[in-house]
């Protein structure tokens, strides 16, 4: 479980180097999204054997800083529409639909990484990596760039897993009232908010609109982020030992952390480690099945496909949750030693 300081330092350097290489390559290809990947290193995860590491400022979103002029439009249903100022930026219309944006990004990364280029991180770790790209359409359009380390002693890779979000600076794009802050952060001043291209939430399912979110994760303190990093690493190892990585992988865990902060606020969500783990277990247990079922039946989510292992994985998480509740040493927490022993992350002496 323990990642050495040198491994962590090399991981941060290499992820930044790889991200820089991708950005430069997209610029050379004159991509519409060139120069927009400012926080790609934040989406990285280091996986080496049983070790896993994430940056202190990890994020589940690739925040696109679009480099061409655009404006936003709001309609009655509170959905957001993006328009390019110059029609030649997009095909046939000024509308930058969420489907168009995702397709453009998918094509750019696929064309760039299909040959599985090999790069060496010079002036740093000196490690070499082979890059490849994977994407999925449902349940959401997610993107994965895998950098596999060559000639490593153990199976080692840096994985960039992300959902796409458009970064909208507050001073240029005032946040609408419909994009609400959690009650515990009602007076918080944000630097930006985000627009999410999630077509399966689109009430018309035409892939034109975006969903607004505050992304209060931007206000998380270094201490809060560090504690969430620990929770992500622990839950990942639990998922690995529990056989639930099919539906509760590293990106899903990072996304859960960000969503818990979005729902409750950074301070309120920053509970003791044991309670954080329980909050995440509740999110990935039977509640997930109920919420998915209700959303599908009521039409809140359209065209949603679920993984065949979802039901079984939710049941496994509920079993872990019951086990954890039974071993709480007080109403607020379970000590770290007990947690590690409980989930097989360390051996009992």
List the helices and strands and how they pair.
Blueprint: H1 5-28, E1 44-48, E2 51-53, E3 61-64, E4 70-74, E5 80-84, H2 98-113, E6 118-120, E7 128-136, E8 142-149, E9 156-169, E10 192-196, E11 211-213, H3 222-242, H4 250-264, H5 266-269, H6 273-283, H7 286-298, H8 310-326, H9 336-342
- The mean pLDDT is 85
What is the number of beta strands? 11
- Which range does the strand content fall in? 15-25%
Write the H/E string, N to C.
Answer: HEEEEEHEEEEEEHHHHHHH
Query: How many independent structural domains?
Result: 2
What tags apply to this protein structure?
349 residues; alpha+beta; 9-stranded mixed beta sheet; two-stranded antiparallel ribbon; 9 helices; 37% helix
Question: Concise description?
Answer:
Helix content is 37%, strand content 18%.
Can you characterise this structure?
This protein has 349 residues and is of the alpha+beta class. The chain has two domains: 1-219; 221-349, no CATH class. Helices cover 37% and strands 18% of the residues. The protein is built from nine helices and eleven strands. A hairpin with a 7-residue loop joins strand 6 (118-120) and strand 7 (128-136). The longest helix is centred in the N-terminal third of the chain and has 24 residues, at 5-28.
